Amino acid sequence: MSPLKLLWALRAIVYKLRFKSVGWLSYMGPPLFLLGASKIVLRDKVRIYPGARMEAHGKGMITIEDNVSIGQNLHITSKNSNLIVGKNTTISGNVFITNIDHDYTEIDKHIMDQDYIVSETRIGENCFIGYGAGIQAGTILGKQCVVGANSVVRGTFPDYCVIAGIPAKIIKKFNQETKKWERP
């Protein structure tokens, strides 16, 4: 382990006092912005590179399962629900993940003064989230999904698919019979 990663591992030991839990061999690179750290769970071998911002508001929780690698500048927010990132997932840099939308139905009120709309958001096991993607409230990704760089994702997507675009849509699915990735 490099000296820098060793330093990050030592920081993780200190963070165990603030987080709900931090698993074995997890590390976080500075700087790290935390809000509601006592409601954030990092399982074993979670690697978070510098610049992460993690926010758990109200009764919200964030759970990052085993062996997840997160690139620089992640921003993840959760309110009144458990936002889950499945095991063995890779999240590239500059990714935003949330289970919160801002209500804007009251036109006489500033959007920031209106209620939040909370929708379940979950990333399945073995997923790959490309650079700059936005995973919006209400997104459910099945296992082994690939999200293209800079995609804006909202909705439910099945296991074994490639998702890309703005708005993101399925551009390939794995065919279990032919054992090939195919266009829908």
UniProtKB/TrEMBL annotation:
One example GO MF annotation: tetrahydrodipicolinate N-acetyltransferase activity
Regions crossing the membrane: none
InterPro entries on file: Hexapep (IPR001451), Hexapeptide_acetyltransf (IPR051159), Trimer_LpxA-like_sf (IPR011004)
Tree of life domain: Bacteria
SUPFAM superfamilies attached to this UniProt entry: Trimeric LpxA-like enzymes (SSF51161)
EC number: 2.3.1.89
Enzyme class: transferase
Keywords assigned by UniProt, alphabetized: Acyltransferase, Transferase
Protein name: 2,3,4,5-tetrahydropyridine-2,6-dicarboxylate N-acetyltransferase
Organism lineage string: Bacteria, Bacillati, Bacillota, Negativicutes, Selenomonadales
Gene: dapH_1
